[in-house]
Design brief:
The chain is α/β, with parallel strands linked by helices. The chain is about 50% helix and about 15% strand. The strands form 2 sheets. The protein has a 7-stranded parallel sheet, sandwiched between helices. It has a two-stranded parallel sheet with strand order 5-8.
Length: about 280
Amino acid sequence: MARRWLITGCSSGLGLALAEAVAAAGDTVLATARKPATLEELSRRHPDRVLTAALDIRDPAQAEEAVALAADRFGGLDVLVNNAGNGLFGAVEEVADEELREQLETLVVGPWRLIRAVLPLMRAQGSGHIVNVSSLAGRMAFPGLGAYVTGKYALEGMSQALAAEVRPLGIRVSVVEPGGFATRYGSSVTETAHRIPVYAAQVDPMLDAMRQMESAPELSRPEYFAEVVRRLVAAEEHPPLRVPVGPDAYAYLGQVEQAARDELAAAEAFTGLPG
């Protein structure tokens, strides 16, 4: 069955790989990016299946226009993938109010806005699938990424509430949590304007590792991410709400789950049982 997709953040990396895979499989896709010129080659490869549009997810008008375009050209919308994002790097004390607002606008408010725009279409159809691209940072924290972690935790919390609200309406919600992938994400991370030297020893090794992600041979390839998302959307039964992607994701999150159990046990022992 051919599906109609809207995918954000398709200029490179995970979004581009997913749009390519969707079109190659015979589905139609509205591929969006802040700079639509970056999508020209994708459109040339799949002229009958790929429609492109400018979309900065922080822009309410562009969000509404993208959804309206998909509805008009495709006659509806089956899958929304909130993939667009960026990273702000800096210790919590270094992040200014405006920098934090900008990060949350991209990671939380923008996806929320698009979800609100597509839900009337999906409710009318009685079907649809919303895929929110989170991260390991949606379930564990990293030094220097406090603002990014905050955004991804918020995205996951919203997704859990949304899933409970729309499942009776025939609409699915998935959260995908990529581990390390060979993309430009690490090299495109923005540093805070104000840096405090005392934090350098704690946070700078993390930044150095991120800057090298694109060329790291041991990291997963974007094509693998695309295949997992396609299988997730095609699944006949309801898949798990949260799906880690990549072997390192499972290794890290296994440690996180064990640490959470240990912390809960320690807290219970500290506070004592009632009665």
